[in-house]
Amino acid sequence: MGIEEFCSRYGGFVLSGGVLLAFLAFALGILNGLKMAALDRRWRLLNRFARDDEFLLNLEKAVGGLDRLERRIDALSAEQERFSLLLRRCTRTPVVKRFNAFHDVGSDLSFSMVLLDGEGNGVILTSLYGREETRMYAKKVTKGAPATRVSTEEEEVLREARANG
């Protein structure tokens, strides 16, 4: 295929492609010109302020203030992280259930109470009130699981505390 045949066969496509590329180059040139005009306006404004000693002094103060703020934010972030770790180990949402342990005693004078931290560690306290005596028991809880067998009431308060924790 010779150059004449190529031009006659594909000349329209080549011409169309060239026109399209020229149009894109023109559009990009206009966009660049607009951006350059905006940058030029900013540069002239900044140049005018750069000659003003008071402006430069205020700018230095502002930059110094930003540096101080950044250091303060870092310190507050570290303190917040420390408090977050501390809060995980604090007792949360104590749960109490009153019940009647013995049928010959009126009213719900016995109770079970659970105190857990954010990691599920803590204690179940149970007081059993009877006519002749009152007994109190403490059962250790580690990661949400009791160390010893628990009663139905103790299981209920432990389940509720884990759900609320």
Descriptive report:
The chain is of the alpha+beta class. The protein has 2 domains: 41-88; 92-164, no CATH class. The chain has 3 helices and 5 strands. It has helices spanning 3-50, 53-88, 152-164; strands at 92-99, 110-116, 122-129, 134-142, 145-146. The chain has a 5-stranded antiparallel beta sheet with strand order 1-2-3-4-5, with helices on one face. The longest helix is centred in the first third of the chain and has 48 residues, at 3-50. It is elongated and about 115 Å long.
What string, H for helix and E for strand, traces the elements in order? Answer: HHEEEEEH
Number of helices: 3
Tell me the number of structural domains. Answer: 2
Class of secondary structure makeup = alpha+beta
Task: Please report the total strand number as a whole number.
Answer: 5
Strand order of the largest sheet: 1-2-3-4-5
Mean pLDDT: 88
Helix content estimate = 55-70%
Low-confidence stretches: none
Largest sheet: 5 strands, antiparallel
Which descriptor suits the 3D outline?
Answer: elongated
Q: In angstroms, what separates the terminal alpha carbons?
A: 82 Å
Radius of gyration: 39 Å
Which secondary structure elements does this structure contain, and how are they paired or packed?
Blueprint: H1 3-50, H2 53-88, E1 92-99, E2 110-116, E3 122-129, E4 134-142, E5 145-146, H3 152-164
Sum this structure up briefly.
The chain is an alpha+beta fold. The protein has helices spanning 3-50, 53-88, 152-164; strands at residues 92-99, 110-116, 122-129, 134-142, 145-146. It has two domains: 41-88; 92-164, no CATH class.
